[in-house]
Amino acid sequence: MTTSETNSGIRLGLRANLAQFSLLVAVNALVGGMLGQERTVLPLLAEDVFHLSTATLGLTYILAFGATKAVTNFFAGTWSDRFGRKPVLIAGWLIALPVPAMLAWGPSWGWIIAANILLGINQGLTWSTTVIMKIDLVGPERRGLAMGFNEAAGYVAVAATAMATGAIAEHAGLRPAPFLLGAAYAVLALGLSTFAVRETRDHARFEAVRHRAPAGGDRDGQLTTGQVARLTSFRDKALSAASQAGMVNNLNDALAWGIFPLLFAAHGLSIAQIGILAALYPAVWGAGQMLTGWWSDHIGRKHLITTGMLLQAAAIGLVAAGTTFGVWATAQILLGIGTALVYPTLLAVIGDVAHPAWRARAVGVYRLWRDGGFAVGALLAGVLADAYGLTPAIWAIAALTAASGLLVAVRMYETHPRN
């Protein structure tokens, strides 16, 4: 793989930075595990332990998580440029330490909301920073592959932890045992981030000297944070199309996280069965990204994103139409494939277009929009479910997802340098 070198010894490329890259993959798996501890158990806690009577109230933890993570993403990009990547990563893990205990022993729903605010900060700081650090290390040639590995590690860990906590809850109850995994993850990740991870900001500075932007990109890198926000959100067709698609993608994830388990439980599935379904989607999504990120490096980004959004829409429609474990399992697999096509490819689009001098801020803005989808999805799905029922709410999100895919097809230009 392509590498470059200066007198300082900085080299770009996956092979040249394999040890640090692999370490960051492991750290991001622990980031995903922190999220996975909630996927099966928390929707059931809302109903069975705290006796919340409406879907909107039950989804407040996703709303709190998504809003906090979205805003934190923005600052993570800015702070990683100002202070360095590693301090931001360590700060994110320090904030995570009390979260498992609050989930396991919190005496009221307010404690669960507070834990998810802290979890949102943790995820915004740590996941954003591991993304930025991997982009720094690999250079322009293998961004799709790098994002595939990053997101695969995170979401395979989400799936594995969702399945594990479901199995633990089936035998030991909804609290506290399932959340002890999260406590172990936080301690291990803090140790790795403090003592083993190295700073990568100089890699981005080295790449900036040799940067060649694609059509629509900025070449001199001299943009304010406000200009980066406007360019990523509205002005650049590829960046803005990626931002809206990312938001809708995570809106879908909020639906899968908060509404799907309620639908499955309403049809009589056991906690263990719900745990399997909750794990299938992120497992396929996570593992598939190792292929789709690499694939986007060879055939381009736009068509994979369009196809993935439309496949997600079809899968969500199948969940709404289904009534059995087999149908829902098929839908979860299709939803995972569609999301795998989209997730690392959207991040690669940001890396393609953004100048290295403002790329971390562009990633932060994109992730602000993308993870804002958690909050929008929780609110929209909850309101629709309370007003019309679970199934109509799911159909509405399916239609919105299809519209997002069509918008990508119309607005986005191809960003990969080879294409």
TrEMBL record:
Domain Major facilitator superfamily (MFS) profile: 17-416
Chain ranges passing through the membrane: 12-35, 55-76, 88-105, 111-132, 152-173, 179-197, 254-272, 308-327, 333-351, 394-413
Keywords per UniProt: Cell membrane, Membrane, Transmembrane, Transmembrane helix, Transport
One Pfam assignment: MFS_1
Membrane topology value: Multi-pass membrane protein
Entry GO MF terms: transmembrane transporter activity
Location in or out of the cell: Cell membrane
CDD domains per UniProt: MFS_MdtG_SLC18_like
InterPro entries: MFS, MFS_dom, MFS_trans_sf, MFS_Transporters, Sugar_transporter_CS
Gene Ontology cellular-component annotations: plasma membrane
PANTHER family given in the database record: INTEGRAL MEMBRANE TRANSPORT PROTEIN, RESISTANCE PROTEIN MDTM, PUTATIVE-RELATED-RELATED
Protein name (Swiss-Prot/TrEMBL): MFS transporter
Origin organism lineage: Bacteria, Bacillati, Actinomycetota, Actinomycetes, Kitasatosporales
